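Q: Convert this sequence to structure tokens.
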Amino acid sequence: MTTATHLFHSLPPIVSFPTATVPAANSSAGTRYQTTSLHVVSASRRSRDDDYHATLKALNSKCRFPRKSLGQHYMLNSEINEQLVRAANIEEGHVVLEIGPGTGSLTNVLINSGATVLAIEKDPHMVALVRERFESTDRFKVLHEDFVKCHIRSHISPMLESRKALNESLLRAKVVSNLPFNISTDVIKLLLPMGDIFSEVVLLLQEETAVRLVESSLRTSEYRPINIFVNFYSEPEYNFSVPRTNFFPQPNVDAAVVTFKLKQAPDYPSVASTKSFFSMVNSAFNGKRKMLRRSLQHICPSNEIERALGDAGLSTTSRPEELTLDDFVKLHNMIARV
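A:
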């Protein structure tokens, strides 16, 4: 059996999907976020067949199979790529960072929408593939780097400098990516504090992760430091879900698209030090079932923690899963004064 034939036999069946609605958010979270109506995307058989063939042809041209170690799952539905780009409101002249372009299916939609794309790709074979595919355009550049280790600011800033005289909306770049699921948290932690150079981060994530990041409900096991982090630096919005059958190879979970509208420094919650603030938040959740007067006693004595809780308008028996972002900000600032 040839490589190409084997790939064709590995494909999931073509099915259609119903529409659905995003469940109402839990307002007890005390955090600001938005949800939109959930549109489960499906495509015509002709469109999906074209995508199957294009993806397989591209992979076969480099004798490549998706690598599990890199979390590679290739998008087979061009309509989803188009919705992803629409969610990011890409216009002529935008600079877009794409992490993990793969065979370039999303890249192609971005370029056709008028964007200049900087792609970061870890797999050298995929670097060669997309470099060859887009060699005729001057609005594409790919770097062979591991995104979580690269200095993205040094790559993006020069591209933005050349646009200073243009429309103000073009002064910050955007991120639009179909991320490998296994690096999504690391990528989010790196990108969200960069509101000075990025205005929006639009990512295709694992469905469970997407919901957890947007619906930061208090008093649940899913409420974690990452929820505080996300809402400190951005306003997250759930866009739409993507069934697992749209990928090759098919993952074990569905996906979803989330938009993070990044705040700039003047809009961050006012804390004495972001470093000490997140250190306190992480310490609080390390003893999640413990009262804060115990889990934070390495910062200052328990009686001073109790006093700070009271001054912040919180119960002296508070636990971390009961505090909103604003509550943590108040508590941190009270402790900083001690």
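The longest strand covers residues 198-206.
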